[in-house]
Amino acid sequence: VIMSASAKGEGVVVCVRLRKEAPQNGMFTVKAASNTIIVHDASVGDEEFTYDHVFEGFTNHSVYSILGKRVLKSIFDGYNSCVFAYGQTGSGKTHTMIGREGDPGTIPRLCTELFAQIDEMKETVEDGAIYKSEVEVEYMEIYNEKIRDLFSANKEHKDSMKVREHPKKGVYVEGIIRKVVTSAADIARLMEEGN
User: Fold this and answer.
1) Which residues does the record give as ATP binding sites (predicted)?
2) Are strands 12-18 and 53-56 parallel, antiparallel or unpaired?
3) Best exposed site among 17, 51, 128, 139 by fewest CB in 10 Å?
4) Which residues pair with 148 in a beta bridge?
5) pLDDT string in tens for the chain (195-residue length)
6) Cβ-contact 152, 194 below 8 angstroms
C-alpha cells in the first residue's frame, strides 16, 4: 500500500501495488478491476476493496507518473507532502520506493525532478529578483509502531521518537534529525548512510 498526503484539503491518497507474481494458491485469488481489488476466498466468497489507484503490473516509472508527480506539484504549491509505503516484509515496498539500478523507484525519481524544477525556477527568475530554496530531509522508519530516526547514531535516541503536533507547523516527529541537501545525489548518499 502506498499512501500520500499533499494538497490542503485533498486528504490521504491510498494506492495499492500488486506484485506480478502475487500468489494464486487456490485458497484465494486477487484480481484488480479499475481501482478495485477483488479477493476471492473459496470459504467466504468475493470481497471488494476500492482505492484511489490500483497498480497491477505497473512499472516504477508508471507508479511515479501517477503518484509522484502529484506529490511534486503539491510541494511546489507550498504544501508539506509525504509518501510512504506500508506492507508485509518482502511485499515490494523497497522496490517501489527505492527501486534498483536502471529502474529507480519513487524516491529517486521525485528527488531528481525536485532539483530539476528548482534549477529551472532559478533560471527563469527575472528583474533582479532573488530566488532562494532550501530542501531539508528527514529519514525515518516506522516498524512495530516505533519510529526510528535513520540518521541518528545514538541507539536510545534512534528508537524513542515521538509524534507531536504544533498549532502552526502541524504534525512532526520530536527530535528528528533534519539535514539540508542541495541535490538528488546528496539525498541518495544520506539514504545510503541511513540504511
Assistant:
1) 87-94
2) parallel
3) 128
4) 141
5) 555 555 555 678 888 888 765 555 555 567 777 788 888 887 888 888 898 888 887 899 999 998 888 889 888 888 878 888 888 888 888 999 999 999 999 999 999 999 999 998 887 777 777 788 899 999 988 888 888 898 988 766 666 688 999 998 888 899 999 999 999 999 999 998 887
6) no
Place of cell 536510545: 156
Is 194 part of any known ligand binding site? no
* Cα–Cα dist 173/148, whole Å: 10
- The pLDDT tens digits for 45-67 are 888 889 888 888 789 999 999 88
Domains and CATH numbers, the chain: 2-138+178-194 (3.40.850.10)
Does residue 117 have a known ligand-binding role? no
* 93 marked as part of a ligand binding site: yes
Q: Is 45 annotated as a binding residue?
A: no
Dihedral sign from CA coordinates of 183, 127, 69, 88: positive
- Does 182 count as an annotated binding residue? no
91 annotated as belonging to a binding site for a ligand: yes
- Phi, psi (5° rounding) for residue 10? -75, -35
Q: Please report, as a single letter, which amino acid is at residue 13.
A: V
